Amino acid sequence: MKDILTRIVQQNELHKKWLNTLSFLENAGARKISACEEPELVDITQLKHAAEEHRHAYYLKKQIQKLDGHAPLHYSLSELLAPVHTRQYLHKLDIQCARYLKEQFGLEGRKLKYAAYLYVTYLIEVRADELYPAYQDVLTEQQSKVTVKSIILEEEGHLKEMISMLEILHPDWQTHASRLQATEEALFNNWFKQITENVQRSEPLRAELA
Predict the structure, then answer these.
(1) CA Rg, the chain, in Å?
(2) pTM here?
(3) Distance in angstroms (rounded) separating the CA atoms of residues 172 and 74
(4) d(Cα 1, Cα 138) in Å, to the nearest integer?
(5) CA neighbor of 45 nearest in space, from 35, 37, 55
(6) What is the helix (H) or strand (E) element at residue 157, kind and residue range?
(7) Are 75 and 41 in contact (CB under 8 A)?
(8) What is the sign, positive or negative, of the torsion defined by CA atoms of 34, 35, 41, 45?
(9) Could you read off the pLDDT of 76-114 as tens digits, one per residue?
(10) Long-range contacts (CB closer than 8 Å, 24 or more residues apart) made by 51-55
(11) CB count, 10 Å around CB of 178?
(12) What are the residue boundaries of the structural domains of the chain, listed by start?
């Protein structure tokens, strides 16, 4: 992972797309959290998570301006890395987690949505606790103006909150989270494989322009 992240950070155009891709994922996560809210019984932690994920999406897009002064206007296919897999990653994770929880607990409707929100968010926070520090290490090594240190701190807080909420939902939540983690890992590995191929395809073009 470090090699690919280093190659991304070393090339402004790739780096811009990477930041925009992360921004897209944060925004997609925030929208999914909001979609799971009860009409009246809205948990304050859920509101906090949605607000902070939206802010992360905004923050990441603003970081792009540190590279050349301009941020992509949209999340169009041409402005993301591995765009198809990026758009499918969270959606597939959500569907597969919901299917598992329905089979295990017979949940339906809003109860299923809420349980899926907790487990999916937990899985994403675990992933964020690995990905963002790895990315920040590369940013520091490459002396980039971009930083994601504030996001790292907030994601650590989110993870602790999700664990507390899962402990209330299911006493044996770790058993189910472990099974679902294998699902997330497969989806993430496939996504990052596509990111890697996207970066590698850019290398010949970079050589021609050099």
Answers:
(1) 18
(2) 0.92
(3) 41
(4) 10
(5) 37
(6) helix 149-169
(7) no
(8) negative
(9) 999 999 999 999 999 999 999 999 999 999 999 888 998
(10) 52/154, 52/158, 53/26, 53/27, 53/29, 54/26, 54/27, 54/30
(11) 9
(12) 2-198
